[in-house]
Amino acid sequence: MKRVGYVLFSVLAIALMLGIASGTAMAQGDNSVYFVTYYSNNVAAAPDATVRVINDGDQGAPQPAGDLFAEFFVFDDSEELTSCCGCVVTPDGLLSESLKNQLTKYPLRGIVPPRGVIKLISSSNCLGANCPGGPSFSPTTPVPGLRPWATHIQSNANKYPYGAAPYTQTETKFADANLGTAEKGLIEQLCYFDYLLSGSPCTCTPEDNDF
User: Fold this and answer.
1) Span 86-101, pLDDT tens digits
2) What residue segments make up the domains of the chain, in order of their start?
3) Can you give the pLDDT at residue 108?
4) How far is CA 161 from CA 43, 77, 113, 116, in A?
5) What is the pTM of this model?
6) Which residues are within 8 A (CB) of 203 and not within 5 positions of it... i.e. 6 or more apart?
7) Residue 198: predicted pLDDT
8) Are 73 and 118 in contact (CB under 8 A)?
């Protein structure tokens, strides 16, 4: 009996240690604030792509204490910024953005890019022409809390400048990226120049109008 008791005690001790270790790992979490992904086959004949962002609620609640802004910076495949905007995401909220109807609908040069790059900063303040209360171009304040995903339109007949039907869709998380001082300053300046030159930012879907 003593041996059985010892074994049970050892098992419980190991389980407790694993639980503490697991809790510690969970408490550390993922503090990413900068994310990147691509878009492709952004043409009339192809289906629309969607970007979805959730606020994990870690920054607090109730609103607006934990509100965060998904700061979008949309580039074409020639490394040119085509649009930018800041969209609020409340704690435990879901933001859905259409690639065709929002993120690339008002490109700087009036030419909708068929493919390119989307960058996102998780920020506690808004930057862009469509901020609550009017345009604001103070530097973003990156804080963790947003988690983005995107669908991608894939073609079975890839060719330049974009693929042809039939199309399929995939979905992936945005990739975590490193937000250096130079990169942050550059994309924020480009967003300001976009406002000066076009005044037409990308737009945001209200959270209760998800699609």
Assistant:
1) 999 999 999 999 999 9
2) 1-29, 31-209
3) 86
4) 10, 10, 10, 12
5) 0.83
6) 85, 102, 105, 106, 130
7) 80
8) yes
